[in-house]
Amino acid sequence: MNDFSDVDRSGRAAELVEHLDHVDRALRAPGGPKERLRAHLALAPGSRVLDLGCGAGHELVQLERDGLCAFGVDASATMLAASRARLAGLGHPARLVRADAQHLPFADRQFDGCRIERVLQHVASPAAVLAGAHRVLRPGGLIAVLEPDWASLTLVSQDAEAARAVADEAGGHIPHRDIGRHLRRLLADAGFVDVRVDVELMVYGSVEDLSRMVSLEHVVDRACAAGRIEHSRGVALLREQRSLSKSGAFHATIHRSVLAWARRP
Predict the structure, then answer these.
(1) What span, in angstroms and rounded, lies between the C-alpha atoms of 187 and 33?
(2) Sorting pLDDT into bands at 50, 70 and 90, what band is 1?
(3) On the chain, which terminus has fewer CB atoms closer than 10 Å, C or N?
(4) Domains in the chain, ordered, with CATH?
C-alpha cells in the first residue's frame, strides 16, 4: 500500500507527518522549489488560494504570511489536525476542509489560485484532480503544481543493465511514479493554457546524499524481489555503489521536482 494514498489507515500517520517536515525543509531553501512555485503563482494580497492536498500545513502558513486568503483541503484527518495546530501556533486562521481531492466541495469559480504539491503522484486519477481545480478557479485564475519524477533516477555503474533495473524500482510503490513528466499534457487536457514547466535536476555524490531522496538499499531489494535482477547482481551493485561513494566517484541524478504553472482561460 502507498501510505500517502490513505494516511489515516496507514498505521504510520505520525511518521508521515514527520516525513513531511523533512521534505518541507529540503524544498524550502532560498531559491528552492517551494519559493519558485510560489513566486510564479504571482497572486495579489487578499487573493483566495486553494492548497489542494495541504498535508501538515507548512505552505498554508507561508501563504497566509504572504497576505493571501488560504484554504487547505486534505483527505486525512491527521494531516488537517497537524495543519490546524501549525496555523494556530502562529496565530493564523484555519480554513480547512476534509475532502477527496478528486471531488472538491466548492462551487465553481471560487478561487484566484490553486497550488498542488506532491499530491498527483498518489491519487487514483490526476486528471480528475486537475479537472476539479479548473472548475473551482475563476477565469484567469492560476495553478501551480510540483511533483517528482521518480522514473528519472539514473545510477552510474559498470553493470549498466543492473543499474537500470534498480533505478526502475525507485518510487515503485507510488501509483504515478513518473507523474512529473506528464504535467504539461495533464494541464493542457484539463483545459489550462499558457502552461510552463521547469525541472530541478539533483546530482548526488554519495549514497548518503541520495538516501535523502531514494534509499538505494530499498530499491535494490525491490528489484531483486521483483525478479528484475538476480540477488547476486543486486548485492554486487550495492557493494560497487558504496565503494564509489567512499572513493568520491559516486554519481546519481534525479528530477526531484518538476514545476508547472498554467492559467484557466
Answers:
(1) 19
(2) very low
(3) N
(4) 3-149+174-201+256-263 (3.40.50.150)
